[in-house]
Design goal:
alpha/beta
């Protein structure tokens, strides 16, 4: 871990201060002790993590998880979902049937408010630990609000399956996304360049962005030198045909991000974007919470204590001329994918869970990116709740970027977006197993390393917070890129 403090990447949209002040180990130990532990879930994750870390990811032997035609595809609606929404998704269902070539591997499934994800699996003929794509396909698109189909359901389902989510307030959002995706996959060519852009703010007086810029983005863009017998790693695009563009520190401005989303006439938009920034957060019941929470703080932000709308990029900053069609974006920032109703980290013993929002919701920026009428993004990867420095650092000298690196390598290799995030699912399960063991030792009054307990708890929650917004079966069409 880094020094004695842990940092979250989030800024209060009203004050310009940290959403959460850097936390000590002792504070987190108090939170861990105050939070109820769901032992059955920890036991399940302990048992399952070795299976999902294997190449087949729990699928029957001989079936490849990175091939949608073999692994299958399904869509999950709430039982009370509007028929107009279901109708808007029907062209995508038909498209996947044609792509897969076996109607038995394409399913329209229903969620009826089950309180246990195991019961949902059982009602569809399968059990945890056994992926049967003819019953429940490996690639699953959840459609609807997290109020109706909770984040916890998709989080646990995502341990064994490749899960994505779509939610728009208006039916036109679904229609726009489906139309864009089908046109991208069936068209003869696409407008995107074979370029991967890395956008990282770095504020000299802000430890959080200094760490994400120096210890997350630099290892990805510049590589990692050999260290103590550990082999060197090349830049993440080194062995691909992608051109790398780095907008780091002073270059990571709002105008630069605007140019990525709305390139000049004659310029082509990139196929991949990775951002590492603060995310904007607002207090519960603020009107801006639903429209701006998770917006990306840019280099213009002058530092703690002041904050202006021109300091961050929000959904409203996309224009009718923006060109997002065919883009996959990975946004490392607090609330960049969505916001839960209750705080997943700060829990005081004996107190009710702290409310973050009146209801859980999907962030406005990725929704606008996916449903843009000029052609939507293929997928946006972001985070539900806060992101922490511990997700990529174990010390001042050592970064832990392999899950990010592997995800990006798979994206640039044209793998389905749901498959690319498998390392984060493995990490969620693996650290759950470690957490379970340490909590059991505590129950036996055995000595437990407090720093390792905090590490396992933070890494588990952080890994489980990543969310794919968009169809998990979508991928870059490499042979069409310019």
């Amino acid at each position: 871990m880094v020094d004695d403090l842990l940092y979250a990447n989030g800024i209060d949209g009203d004050t310009g201060e940290y959403l959460l002040e850097p936390q000590t180990y002792d504070q987190f130990l108090d939170y861990i002790r105050g939070r109820p532990v769901d032992k059955p879930i920890l036991e399940f994750l302990t048992n399952i993590w070795s299976s999902i870390s294997k190449k087949h990811l729990g699928l029957p032997d001989g079936l490849h998880a990175d091939d949608v035609k073999q692994a299958g595809w399904g869509v999950i609606f709430h039982s009370e979902e509007d028929e107009e929404v279901k109708n808007a998704l029907q062209p995508l269902v038909d498209h996947r049937k044609k792509q897969v070539g076996d109607d038995r591997l394409v399913k329209v499934l229903q969620y009826s408010g089950e309180r246990d994800w195991k019961r949902w699996l059982a009602e569809n003929g399968v059990a945890p630990g056994s992926v049967e794509p003819h019953l429940v396909p490996f690639y699953l698109l959840i459609v609807g609000s997290p109020e109706k189909i909770p984040y916890w359901f998709s989080r646990l389902l995502d341990v064994e399956y490749a899960v994505g989510r779509l939610h728009f307030e208006r039916v036109d959002g679904y229609k726009n996304y489906v139309k864009s995706l089908i046109e991208y996959e069936t068209g003869d060519d696409v407008a995107n360049s074979r370029e991967a852009v890395f956008f990282a703010t770095r504020h000299e007086d802000d430890e959080a962005t200094k760490m994400s810029a120096d210890n997350l983005v630099i290892p990805l863009t510049d590589g990692i030198p050999e260290d103590g017998g550990v082999p060197a790693q090349t830049p993440v695009t080194e062995n691909s045909d992608f051109h790398l563009r780095k907008l780091w520190g002073d270059r990571a401005t709002k105008s630069a991000l605007t140019d990525i989303f709305t390139p000049a006439v004659g310029e082509q938009p990139p196929a991949f974007l990775f951002t590492a920034t603060h995310g904007v957060g607002f207090k519960k019941r603020k009107d801006e919470q639903f429209s701006r929470q998770g917006a990306l703080v840019c280099q213009e932000w002058p530092g703690e204590g002041t904050f202006r709308q021109q300091d961050y990029f929000a959904a409203e900053n996309l224009t009718p001329d923006s060109r997002l069609h065919g883009l996959i974006s990975f946004n490392f920032a607090c609330y960049s994918a969505g916001t839960p109703m209750y705080d997943q980290y700060m829990h005081i013993r004996g107190a009710d869970p702290r409310l973050i929002a009146d209801k859980p919701f999907v962030a406005a920026l990725p929704k606008a990116m996916l449903s843009h009428p000029n052609g939507g993004a293929l997928a946006v990867i972001g985070h539900v709740d806060r992101t922490w420095s511990s997700s990529f650092m174990v010390s001042r000298q050592r970064s832990l970027v392999q899950p990010f690196r592997n995800a990006i390598l798979r994206i640039l290799d044209g793998k389905p977006i749901g498959y690319t995030m498998k390392d984060f699912n493995e990490r969620f399960a693996a650290y759950s197993a470690g957490l379970s063991e340490r909590l059991e030792m505590l129950g036996w009054n055995q000595s437990v390393s407090e720093s390792e307990l905090v590490r396992d708890w933070l890494l588990r929650n952080d890994a489980g917070g990543y969310l794919i917004l968009g169809d998990p079966a979508a991928s870059l069409c490499l042979d069409k890129l310019i």
